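stage 2 :: seqdesign
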């Protein structure tokens, strides 16, 4: 297991905080947000952490950011309610006013070597790598905040906070690559031109909900089964598991030949059953797995669409069908979980987009919310190209989130496109059981070169 690393403080030089505005005039208007953008579930900033071996000139980063904000001008605007109603559930929009993004410059007395391994399981102290904007509410925080931290060794940490109401993972990757492209080659035109309009995913009038949508609810969960709230009330441990191609193959072998599956499907099902198996729940309780499904192709969204172009797929199962303590039935449990994930994907993509349209219409009711009461949530970052970002000094040595949470992330493994790293925080009381369930024993026992001295590829750190 990795040693806990408490980061030293960042030093901010004089005039370290800069407001970066677009370098040319941009349209001034209100940008409509679709119901997929405007979910309360997404009212936060996606915070990325990058480690680079070499630093980039801060002036070059400022100049290119100012340039790219001409194309991505909503990120230089501000979120607001679309009228004077003070209701927290009221619909949001973007005031495209060109006020600008925040860029902070800092220095830390550390080296890449000190940070590279520990970055896999970030703890609370890593939050200091992102400048904290003083704000009264979520709406007052600029949609884009960046901190560039130079290190003693000449390396660089880049942290970005991008408002999820404006972009999903694919959208943030598209923006970051555009910024990197203009930093590396200032005189080039963007490879992908952003598409700003969100009316392509506007709800119908009147709404037409024609399918059951188990990932959402109008009812409040009972205290006995509000799992995420229970977890967040306890000290959390960040756990990280890397599945190389051999580990993934071992999982897939538990399903084939009767069921062929993708890497995401099998690792998601395995992580879900391991998480549920560690919670000691009533065997008749229905539990859910919520995971992001890209709808750009199925909904024929325009190229360059960087808004939230995903919906939540929902697999659900009785605990007793997903988890069985009899080791002889482990293969059947995994087969069951994978099939449920595949069915959730098929339901979303079938019906000529009608299921997705029903979901968008259902979200028109502001009493509807994502059902997190007995759900594990997985967000996939591992197939978005985030690890390929190049500002002219080479690709990053590490890419991941700034912090770990109870929401599970599937992360890219730098240098191994076939591997996936699972990062999720769990209560200390269930951490040992979760590690045990996550082990792919056949894999690690037969491939010792891939493991650490504990016999399995896992790291953990206390996260509070």
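stage 2 :: out
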């Amino acid at each position: 297991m990795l040693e806990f690393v408490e980061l030293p403080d960042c030093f901010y030089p004089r005039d370290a905080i800069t407001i970066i505005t677009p370098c040319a005039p941009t349209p001034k208007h209100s940008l409509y947000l679709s119901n997929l953008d405007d979910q309360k579930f997404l009212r936060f900033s996606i915070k990325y952490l990058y480690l680079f071996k070499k630093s980039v000139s801060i002036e070059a980063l400022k100049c290119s950011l100012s340039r790219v904000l001409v194309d991505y001008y909503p990120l230089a605007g501000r979120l607001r309610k679309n009228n004077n109603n003070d209701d927290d559930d009221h619909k949001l929009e973007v005031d495209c006013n060109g006020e600008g993004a925040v860029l902070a410059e800092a220095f830390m007395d550390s080296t890449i070597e000190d940070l590279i391994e520990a970055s896999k399981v970030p703890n609370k102290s890593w939050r200091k790598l992102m400048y904290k904007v003083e704000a009264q509410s979520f709406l007052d925080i600029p949609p884009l905040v960046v901190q560039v931290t130079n290190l003693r060794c000449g390396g660089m940490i880049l942290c970005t906070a991008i408002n999820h109401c404006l972009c999903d993972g694919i959208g943030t990757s598209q923006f970051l690559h555009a910024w990197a492209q203009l930093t590396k080659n200032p005189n080039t035109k963007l490879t992908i031109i952003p598409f700003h309009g969100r009316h392509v995913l506007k709800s119908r009038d009147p709404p037409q909900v024609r399918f059951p949508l188990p990932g959402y609810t109008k009812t409040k969960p009972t205290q006995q089964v509000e799992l995420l709230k229970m977890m967040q009330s306890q000290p959390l441990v960040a756990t990280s598991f890397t599945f190389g191609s051999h580990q993934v193959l071992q999982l897939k072998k538990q399903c084939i030949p009767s069921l062929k599956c993708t890497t995401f499907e099998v690792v998601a099902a395995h992580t879900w059953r391991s998480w549920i198996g560690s919670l000691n729940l009533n065997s008749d309780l229905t539990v859910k797995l919520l995971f992001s499904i890209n709808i750009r192709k199925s909904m024929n969204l325009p190229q360059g669409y960087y808004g939230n172009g995903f919906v939540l797929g929902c697999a659900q199962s009785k605990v007793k069908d997903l988890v069985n303590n009899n080791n002889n039935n482990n293969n059947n449990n995994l087969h069951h979980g994978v099939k449920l994930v595949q069915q959730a994907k098929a339901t979303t993509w079938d019906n000529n987009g009608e299921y997705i349209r029903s979901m968008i219409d259902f979200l028109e009711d502001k009493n509807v919310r994502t059902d997190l009461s007995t759900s594990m949530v997985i967000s996939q970052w591992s197939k978005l190209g985030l690890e390929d970002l190049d500002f002219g000094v080479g690709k990053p040595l590490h890419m991941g989130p700034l912090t770990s949470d109870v929401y599970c992330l599937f992360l890219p493994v730098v240098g191994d496109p076939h591997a996936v790293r699972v990062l999720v925080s769990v209560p200390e009381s269930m951490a040992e059981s979760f590690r045990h369930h996550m082990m792919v024993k056949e894999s690690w026992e037969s491939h010792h070169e891939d493991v650490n001295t504990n016999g399995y590829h896992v790291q953990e750190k206390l996260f509070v």
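stage 3 :: structure notes
- The chain is about 25% helix and 25% strand.
- Residues 51 and 157 are 5 Å apart (CA to CA).
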